[in-house]
């Protein structure tokens, strides 16, 4: 049985003539002082007509017992500082960054309107700014990149049967909990990009279902991801793709979770980068470092309908000014730092390649995809040693290292030093790898890795075929 609990608070208060029992918990003096200031303020207004204060029911909730609600402000501060120190040495992902002081202030000082009624100034301002920068007619702030992608897809598609064409590695297809099927009832034709880097126009068209054969699900939408695994989709190919799709009235959506990295790497404006697309999703909580949020931009009538779907998805946020202002400030202050993160990523890639580590993909932005088999160790060994010896956190089995804006340069140097230590401790392992692989192939891997470390690719990129968490080289 499900309960819609919106008015539960009132129901409880009107039925109960005794206060809910307070659990005996330790609440810090700071929190007690705050809570009593709040209840004093609540008690301040005069009682309603015909009632006296004595007659009003006293209601309260059992106090929270879980940490950190019960700790002092000083301890909270210490915990957050420890978190920031950990994040500075955490290469798992760029979603791991923590809000800095500027963003935390925004959480307190933002506008307080209801964004569903379009009455929140900071949300309205961010949406207008994003529409202007993308060159699209309208933009909408949502809680996550998954939501802006799935809303975009849902809004482009009207009535099944239809299909979506996307890269076999695309987040919209692989890592959004099957949302294309459950939200949009569409089938997916996934393209295995032959060059390992991006889908070509010809590959996309080969996978589009055209015509009206009733056995088929005609393609109505193509989704591209830019960057994909840190790699930048060549802009001229995107322009060609849009032209080709226009001939068949197929729409083009971009999962631009990391579009900001494209701008930082290429110097393109957001407007130029978004020009080939009918709609674009732009994450704010990845490289940009906002605590929450993603933008969906597109034509005005498209965003109007997407807003409707957002409500149906349960994604309408009431007083979301704090999130919108934090995102606005992050765009203004953290976006300019991205070239620095790219330079650090290149330093990491080059340092590792000099030690004999192979790269699976070119380091075009902030991601470094490593394969440590050539130096005779496993990803698991590396992960454990990184944590134990250097206090560095990374993922395995996927060899993806992300340099985000809070990574400290020393963490990069320490990681390179660690790999040097491990290589020197495992020389036999490296020899065995060379024998297994063959000298010519080993040379080719080293040559390719050197090129990838400079962000270059030529010919086919061989790197990890899938993005599933289960992917393992072992
Ligand atoms: C390429 C890409 N698109 C979309 C998303 C979804 O973003 P969110 O985690 O905000 O739902 C992610 C998340 O990592 C991503 O990497």
Domain module count: 2
Classify the helix fraction into a percent range: 40-55%
Which ligands appear in the coordinates? pyridoxal-5'-phosphate
Main sheet specs: 7 strands, mixed
Distance, first to last CA = 46 Å
> What is the approximate shape?
globular
Radius of gyration: 26 Å
pLDDT under 50 segments (min length 5)? 11-27, 467-474
Mean pLDDT over the residues? 89
According to CATH, the homologous superfamily of the largest domain is Type I PLP-dependent aspartate aminotransferase-like (Major domain)
Topology-level CATH name of the largest domain: Aspartate Aminotransferase, domain 2
Along the chain, the helix and strand elements come as HHHHHEHEHHEHEHEHHEEHHHEEHEHHH
Strand content is 5-15%
**CATH class descriptor of the largest domain:** Alpha Beta
The total count of strands amounts to: 10
State the helix count. 19
> Could you give the order of strands across the largest sheet?
1-7-6-5-4-2-3
| CATH hierarchy: architecture of the largest domain | 3-Layer(aba) Sandwich
What attributes does this structure have?
474 residues; Aspartate Aminotransferase, domain 2; binds pyridoxal-5'-phosphate; disordered C terminus; 3-stranded antiparallel β-sheet; Aspartate Aminotransferase, domain 1
Structure overview:
There is one protein chain. The chain has helices at 8-15, 29-43, 73-87, 101-109, 121-134, 145-156, 171-174, 179-184, 201-207, 235-246, 259-266, 270-274, 300-312, 321-333, 338-354, 379-390, 409-425, 427-437, 439-453; strands spanning 138-142, 163-167, 187-191, 219-225, 251-255, 279-283, 294-298, 358-359, 367-371, 400-402. Strands 1-7-6-5-4-2-3 form a seven-stranded mixed sheet, sandwiched between helices. With 474 residues, it is an alpha/beta fold. The protein is built from 19 helices and ten strands. Mean pLDDT is 89; it is low at 11-27 and 467-474. β4 (219-225), α10 and β5 form a beta-alpha-beta unit. The radius of gyration is 26 Å and the shape is globular. α16 crosses α17 (409-425). It has two domains: 110-333, Aspartate Aminotransferase, domain 2, CATH 3.40.640; 337-453, Alpha-Beta Complex (Aspartate Aminotransferase, domain 1), CATH 3.90.1150. Pyridoxal-5'-phosphate (PLP) is lined by residues 95, 144-146, 149, 171, 225, 255, 257, 283, 285, 294. This is Aromatic amino acid beta-eliminating lyase/threonine aldolase domain-containing protein. Belongs to the threonine aldolase family. Its cofactor is pyridoxal 5'-phosphate.
């Amino acid at each position: 049985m499900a309960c819609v609990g919106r008015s539960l608070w009132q129901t409880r208060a009107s039925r109960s003539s005794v206060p809910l029992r307070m659990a005996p918990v330790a609440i810090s003096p700071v929190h007690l002082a705050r809570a009593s200031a709040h209840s004093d303020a609540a008690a301040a207004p005069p009682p309603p007509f015909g009632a006296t204060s004595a007659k009003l029911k006293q209601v309260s909730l059992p106090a929270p017992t879980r940490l950190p609600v019960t700790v002092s402000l000083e301890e909270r501060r210490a915990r957050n500082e420890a978190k920031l120190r950990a994040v500075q040495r955490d290469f798992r992902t760029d979603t791991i960054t923590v809000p800095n002081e500027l963003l935390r202030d925004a959480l307190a000082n933002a506008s307080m309107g209801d964004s569903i009624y379009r009455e929140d100034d900071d949300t309205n301002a961010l949406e207008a700014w994003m529409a202007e920068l993308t060159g699209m007619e309208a933009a909408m702030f949502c809680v996550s990149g998954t939501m802006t992608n799935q809303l975009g897809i849902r809004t482009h598609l009207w009535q099944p049967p239809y299909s979506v064409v996307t890269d076999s590695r695309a987040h919209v297809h692989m890592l959004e909990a099957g949302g294309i099927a459950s939200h949009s009832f569409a089938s997916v034709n996934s393209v295995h990009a032959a060059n390992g880097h991006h889908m070509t126009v010809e590959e996309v068209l080969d996978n589009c279902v055209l015509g009206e054969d009733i056995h088929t699900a005609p393609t109505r939408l193509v989704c591209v991801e830019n960057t994909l695994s840190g790699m930048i989709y060549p802009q001229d190919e995107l322009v060609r793709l849009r032209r080709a799709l226009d001939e068949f009235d197929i729409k083009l959506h971009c999962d631009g979770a990391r579009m900001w990295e494209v701008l930082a790497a290429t110097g393109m404006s957001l407007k130029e980068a978004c020009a080939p697309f009918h709609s674009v999703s732009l994450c704010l909580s990845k490289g940009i470092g906002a605590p929450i949020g993603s933008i969906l931009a597109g034509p005005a009538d498209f965003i109007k309908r997407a807003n409707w779907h957002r409500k149906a998805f349960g994604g309408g946020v009431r007083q979301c000014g704090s999130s919108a202002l934090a995102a606005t400030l992050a765009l203004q202050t953290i976006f300019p730092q991205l070239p620095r993160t790219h330079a650090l990523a290149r330093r990491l890639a080059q340092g590792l390649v000099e030690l004999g580590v192979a790269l699976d993909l070119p380091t075009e932005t902030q991601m470094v995809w490593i394969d440590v088999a050539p130096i005779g160790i496993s990803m698991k060994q590396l992960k454990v040693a990184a944590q134990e010896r250097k206090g560095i956190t990374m993922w395995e089995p996927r060899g993806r290292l992300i340099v985000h804006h809070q990574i400290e340069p020393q963490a990069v140097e320490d990681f390179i030093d660690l790999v040097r230590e491990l290589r020197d401790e495992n020389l036999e392992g490296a020899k065995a790898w060379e024998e297994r692989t063959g000298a010519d192939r080993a040379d080719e891997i080293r040559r390719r890795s050197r090129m990838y470390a400079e962000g270059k690719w030529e010919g086919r990129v061989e790197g990890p075929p899938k993005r599933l968490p289960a992917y393992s080289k072992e």
